[in-house]
Amino acid sequence: MAQQTLTRGTVRRRARLPRRLALLMRPELPSLAQEIIDEVRRSIPEYGRPLKGPYVEALRIGVERALTDFVDRVANPLEPNERHHETYRRLGRFEAQEGRTLDTLQAALRIGAQVAWRRIMKVGPRRRVSPEVMAQLADALFAYIDELAALALEGYMDARPDGEAEAHRRRLLELLLRRDGSSRVLTEAAERAGWTIPEEATAVVAPPGARYVRAALDEDVLADLTATQPFLIVPGKPTQERRRSLHRVLPDGQIVVGLTVPTPSVADSLRWARCALGLVETGVLGDAPVTDCEEHLITLWLLSDQALIDQLASRHLGEMDAFSARQRDRLLETLRAWLVTRGTANDIAKELGIHPQTVRYRMRQVDGVLGERLTDAEARFAIEAVLRAKQLRERAAAPPGAESGRDEAAPRKQSSNDNRPGADRREMST
């Protein structure tokens, strides 16, 4: 990890630049500072909080001083450059005191460098800056960013005497999720991190940008709360007390608890939890404060590879496309009820709220198209899986309160015509 290896001794020597560049750059600083701040706030959730929060104030001060200091150095390379060093040490200390890693600050530095370089590429050619000087300027800019990161690391390590232990825990987390290291390497990493490897573990995820309180984190929980999708690795199966603890760490709620698995397979638990979070966000699963993957295994399985479901649908139900969309939907609705209940026409009619004769007529139509597939166990299983997945997709796509979001067992509201035995016969002929 960059924050563990970067030291002041690794910073590259800055290239000597023509002093006239400072005159070209100074008028750009106010608008460039604002552009950097806007881009960082868009890209990093912590900086996207209220305008007067400590993160945003630290960002504003850091950006403005960094730009001014860099241009001052170009104008006078011999001038002492210690003036703003304490600013970046203080930013590193701030991250440590808040219980975070340096990942967020370092990401902001990288974004700042990218935005600044885009501005240089725009202004430089217009002011007839030669390619050689542009190359020197690029080298100086990125060396300067390295220097700022090193200063932040100094402050961070000063405020976090346990910084080395934190690095070991992050390394352990990486090894657990990679699954390609030896058990000996994993055991050694756990010993260095002071973590006892449990027999089982559970992944827990939160939405991108979720607010967190690192100080509330239990000592035996591994976590990356600054990831794009924050996640935690909890030893064993989360108890009620552990769940309350997780809500203290992630106070905004909406967490997804993965399956409890043997610890070497915890990457699977994380993958399933992230899949479930995606289904929560698209409306397939409810938005309860806690979603348990173990309560939605069939849904996770059916929607884990939607392209494959499409292929199954094409192979087993493609002939149904010969009907109009309305006819096809009603036939497939009846087929799904038949597959799920395996009941009589009266049972299916009661579930769907239609006449038994309508059920019989629809099933004759389906049988005429699908034929032997309805008696083949493997094909019948594939068709049922496709129809269940289709229903889940429709639930996600429907606006709130729409019919497709109703409970699967609820009868469909119908017109009086639907109850007449000949209703579907007329429907099929239109």
UniProtKB/TrEMBL annotation:
Q: Where is this region: Disordered?
A: 393-430
Domain (PucR-like N-terminal): residue spans on this chain: 16-177
Q: Where is the composition biased (Basic and acidic residues)?
A: 421-430
Annotated PucR C-terminal helix-turn-helix domain residues:
331-389
Q: Which Gene3D superfamilies match?
A: PucR C-terminal helix-turn-helix domain
Q: What is this protein called?
A: Helix-turn-helix domain-containing protein
Q: Which organism is it from?
A: Actinomadura monticuli
